[in-house]
Automatic annotation (TrEMBL):
One of its GO terms (molecular function) is oxidoreductase activity. It comes from Aspergillus minisclerotigenes. It holds the Pfam family TauD. InterPro entries: TauD-like_sf, TauD/TfdA-like. Residues 47-287 form the TauD/TfdA-like domain. This is TauD/TfdA-like domain-containing protein. The lineage of its organism: Eukaryota, Fungi, Dikarya, Ascomycota, Pezizomycotina.
Length: 297
C-alpha cells in the first residue's frame, strides 16, 4: 500500500554552527509503504516497490504491521534488494560490530571498546551523511524505530542534497569536487589499529546512478588542504544554515515515526541529523548497505 506523508513540522535540528531560530519545514513529501507481514520482504513485488521509490525519491518510510525487534524484515528486505536489484550487502560498522548498530543512549556500555559513538549519547547530531570517512561509503542506510523518544526530543531531520547544492555558487561546487580534503575516521569506526586513519578526497562527485552530484558531509572530520577548499567548505556550511536551505528541511517527529517505523535513505542524495534526545529509552537500529566508490576513480 502506497501513501504519501504530507504534514508540516517546525524545524528542530541545530547544526555545528547554530542558527538563530528554527525554521518551518515545507510539506513533507515522503513515499510511504506498509509491510503487512514479516514475509512481505520475500515478495518480489513489494521489494520492487521499495526499489522504485529509492530510485525516484531517494527516501522511503515503511510501517511494519507486526513486532520485529530483531529486524528480520529489514534483513530480508536488503537481501531481496541484493538478489533482485543488485544492491551490495550491508557493511560492518567497525572492527567490532556486524551489520546492525544500536542507536540508544548509554553511559557505560559501548559497542566499540574504549570509544563512545555519538549515537550512544543524547546529544544533537549536526547535519551529515553516513560514513563520510569511507572511500566507498554505503549508498543506503535504514533506521528502524524500536522505542521512539516520548519526551519531545530525538527528531530526525532530512534535507535533499539537490535542494542544497542549487544554492551554492558554481565556483564552490567546482572546488568541492576537488580531492582537497583530509577526512579523518572517527575512533569508534576505525577498522585498523592506526590512530591516524584517514583518507583524502572530495566532498562532491558526479553520481552515475542518479545523474546528479553526490555529497558526503560531516564537518568535524574534514580538514581543507587548500585555501580554495576552505572557502568552499565555509560557503557550504553557511548556505546549509541559511533560510533558503532551512525552508527545505523536513522534520520527522516521534509522532510521525512511531515504533515499527523504518526510514530508508539514499546516503548521497539526502543529508540527515537529529536534535537532542530527551528520552533515555529511545532506541533505533541502523544498517548500511550497497557500498560504492565515491567519485569516478
Amino acid at each position: 500500500m502506497l501513501r504519501t506523508l504530507t504534514r508540516a513540522y517546525h524545524g528542530a535540528l541545530g547544526t555545528s554552527i547554530r542558527s538563530a531560530a528554527p525554521a518551518l519545514s515545507p510539506l513533507a513529501n515522503i513515499p510511504y509503504l506498509q509491510a503487512p507481514r514479516l514475509d512481505s520482504a520475500h515478495d518480489q513485488s513489494h521489494v520492487g516497490s521499495v526499489q522504485r521509490h529509492l530510485q525516484d525519491a531517494g527516501v522511503l518510510k515503511i510501517s511494519l504491521n507486526f513486532d520485529d525487534n530483531d529486524s528480520h524484515y529489514l534483513t530480508n528486505l536488503i537481501q531481496g534488494l541484493h538478489r533482485w536489484h543488485g544492491h551490495g550487502l550491508p557493511i560492518t560498522h567497525s572492527a567490532h560490530r556486524g551489520w546492525y548498530w544500536d542507536i540508544r543512549p548509554s553511559q557505560t556500555v559501548f559497542q566499540c571498546p574504549d570509544h563512545q559513538a555519538r549515537s550512544e549519547t543524547m546529544n544533537e547530531f549536526p547535519w551529515h551523511t553516513d560514513c563520510s570517512y569511507e572511500a566507498t561509503p554505503p549508498r543506503f542506510f535504514a533506521l528502524q524505530v524500536l522505542h521512539p523518544d516520548q519526551c519531545g526530543g530525538g527528531t530526525l531531520s532530512v534535507l535533499k542534497v539537490d535542494n542544497l547544492l542549487k544554492l551554492l555558487s558554481e565556483s564552490t561546487r567546482a572546488a568541492l569536487q576537488k580531492k582537497d580534503y583530509l577526512i579523518t575516521v572517527p575512533p569508534e569506526f576505525r577498522k585498523t589499529d592506526n590512530k591516524d586513519e584517514s583518507i583524502i578526497g572530495s566532498l562532491l562527485s558526479p553520481d552515475p546512478e542518479s545523474g546528479s552530484l553526490a555529497l558526503r558531509f560531516r564537518e568535524d572530520i574534514f580538514t581543507p588542504l587548500t585555501g580554495e577548499a576552505g572557502l568552499a567548505l565555509e560557503e557550504l556550511k553557511s548556505v546549509l544554515l541559511g533560510p533558503k536551505a532551512q525552508a527545505e528541511v523536513v522534520n520527522l517527529t516521534a509522532e510521525m515515526m512511531p515504533r515499527g517505523s523504518i526510514i530508508i535513505m539514499d546516503n548521497r542524495r539526502w543529508l540527515h541529523g537529529r536534535n537532542q534526545v530527551k528520552d533515555p529509552r529511545r532506541h533505533l537500529k541502523r544498517v548500511r548497505w550497497d557500498a560504492r566508490q565515491f567519485g569516478l576513480d
